[in-house]
């Protein structure tokens, strides 16, 4: 199929959805309902470590202490971890405000629905707590463990919010955000690890059945299936009617959402892509298990630049104010690169693999690492923001 199906007009009239995201909050784990990995915040470098919070300590015989990607709102940070704790922390200090306990790991990021914070757990339940108090409001049982991030879609006509989340029972669930009542389910052929992206009235998700599923987000009706050919371990991103997906077939690909046609495919090395793509203007950004962070032309699928890390990159990048890409690596570093040329703006050695997607809330960048710790970095005071390179 042609690599040039994406109209040039798209690059002149970008309308990447930001939902209700503001500079002071991080209400979607990938920045917006379409999961494009965007933040309006312009960071000031060098970032300084503001605080760190130990979510869990290493049990005997356990290889890693995974912490979920965080979300933030109204001066509070929310994240779960592998030992079944879900916590609310003070954004400025890292002090614990409240804690909820599940009977399994909280792998996937949470999402906000009105006054609620919602997350899936490996015990098979989707939980909703009051975001201020931590009081459980509802929980919904699926038929298997949940690893996927939650997404909350707001119907543009009714303003009613729906929780969208996948389970290892091969289904994606649409739940009423205020009651947990099941609205519809979409069944697939295997496990679902990644979040479900919503844009232009469609819901798009992939999983271990190697297929992109496109459904009407309001009704759950299947619109089409797109064969990718390899496991999809994370969420897709949607921008201007195009679906961007990274997968275990060692490629990043773009597909037309309207007809399923492949726009382009990128990748030369035999290493998987787990990190989800981020989209900004003319470029797709994605880290790979080839230890490289890739910038890909949105129109042609050609490489714009790449940056080499010391280990693989499973952390999904966030693009901040169109200036820098922020992401972590299994080499134990957190990085910020200029989006136009890939030049390093800043790095910090955490010392443990960083697989989570950063949360950007006001002056803070929050990431979890495999040492069971959440780290918060703050923009430097009195320093000019980073300029696009």
Write out key terms for the chains shown.
33 strands, 389 residues, Methylamine Dehydrogenase, Chain H
What name does CATH use for the topology?
Methylamine Dehydrogenase, Chain H
What is the number of helical segments per DSSP (H or I, 4+ residues)? 0
Number of domains: 1
- CATH architecture group name: 7 Propeller
Number of strands: 33
CATH class reads: Mainly Beta
Query: Biggest sheet: strands, sense, closure?
Result: 5 strands, mixed
- Which percent range fits the helix content? under 10%
- What is the CATH homology-level superfamily? YVTN repeat-like/Quinoprotein amine dehydrogenase
Please state the overall shape, judged from the principal axes of the Cα atoms.
globular
Strand order of the largest sheet: 1-27-28-29-30
Helix-strand makeup class: mainly beta
Overall mean confidence score, pLDDT: 92
If you compute it from the alpha carbons, what radius of gyration comes out, rounded to the nearest whole angstrom?
Answer: 19 Å
Which consecutive residue ranges, at least 5 long each, have pLDDT under 50?
A: 1-20
Which range does the strand content fall in? 35-45%
List the helices and strands and how they pair.
Elements lengths: L37 E2 L8 E7 L16 E3 L2 E5 L4 E6 L5 E6 L9 E3 L2 E5 L4 E6 L5 E6 L9 E4 L6 E6 L4 E6 L5 E6 L9 E3 L2 E4 L5 E6 L5 E6 L9 E3 L2 E6 L3 E6 L5 E5 L11 E3 L2 E5 L4 E6 L5 E6 L9 E3 L3 E5 L4 E6 L5 E6 L9 E3 L2 E5 L4 E6 L11
Parallel strand pairs: 1-27
Antiparallel strand pairs: 2-33, 3-4, 4-5, 5-6, 7-8, 8-9, 9-10, 11-12, 12-13, 13-14, 15-16, 16-17, 17-18, 19-20, 20-21, 21-22, 23-24, 24-25, 25-26, 27-28, 28-29, 29-30, 31-32, 32-33
């Amino acid at each position: 199929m042609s690599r040039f199906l994406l109209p040039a007009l798209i690059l002149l009239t970008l309308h990447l959805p930001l939902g209700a995201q503001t500079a002071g909050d991080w209400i979607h784990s990938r920045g917006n309902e379409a999961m494009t990995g965007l933040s309006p915040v312009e960071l000031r470098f060098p970032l300084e470590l503001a605080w760190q919070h130990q979510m869990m300590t290493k049990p005997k015989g356990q290889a890693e202490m995974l912490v979920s990607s965080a979300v933030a709102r109204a001066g509070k940070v929310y994240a779960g971890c592998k030992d079944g704790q879900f916590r609310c922390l003070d954004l400025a200090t890292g002090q614990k405000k409240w804690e909820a306990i599940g009977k399994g790991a909280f792998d996937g990021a949470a999402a906000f629905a009105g006054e609620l914070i919602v997350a899936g757990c490996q015990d098979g339940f989707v939980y909703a707590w009051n975001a201020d108090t931590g009081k459980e409001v509802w929980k919904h049982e699926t038929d298997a463990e949940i690893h996927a991030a939650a997404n909350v879609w707001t119907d543009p006509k009714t303003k009613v919010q729906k929780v969208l989340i996948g389970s290892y029972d091969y289904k994606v669930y649409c739940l009423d955000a205020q009651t947990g009542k099941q609205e519809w389910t979409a069944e697939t052929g295997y496990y679902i690890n990644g979040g479900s992206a919503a844009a232009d009235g469609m819901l798009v998700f992939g999983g271990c059945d190697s297929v992109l599923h496109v459904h009407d987000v309001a009704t759950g009706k299947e619109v089409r299936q797109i064969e990718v050919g390899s496991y999809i371990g994370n969420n897709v991103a949607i921008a201007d009617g195009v679906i961007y997906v990274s997968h275990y077939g060692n490629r990043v690909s773009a597909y037309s959402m309207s007809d399923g046609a492949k726009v382009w495919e990128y990748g030369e090395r035999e290493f998987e892509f787990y990190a989800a793509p981020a989209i900004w203007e003319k470029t797709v950004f994605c880290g790979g298990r080839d230890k490289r962070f890739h910038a890909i032309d949105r129109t042609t699928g050609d490489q714009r630049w790449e940056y080499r890390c010391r280990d693989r990159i499973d952390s999904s990048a966030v693009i901040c104010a169109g200036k820098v890409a922020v992401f972590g690596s299994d080499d134990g570093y957190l990085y910020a690169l200029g989006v136009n040329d890939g030049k390093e703006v800043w790095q910090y050695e955490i010392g443990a693999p960083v697989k989570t997607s950063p949360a950007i809330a006001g002056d803070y960048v929050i990431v979890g690492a495999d040492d069971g710790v959440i780290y918060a970095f703050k923009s430097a005071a009195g320093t000019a923001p980073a300029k696009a390179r």
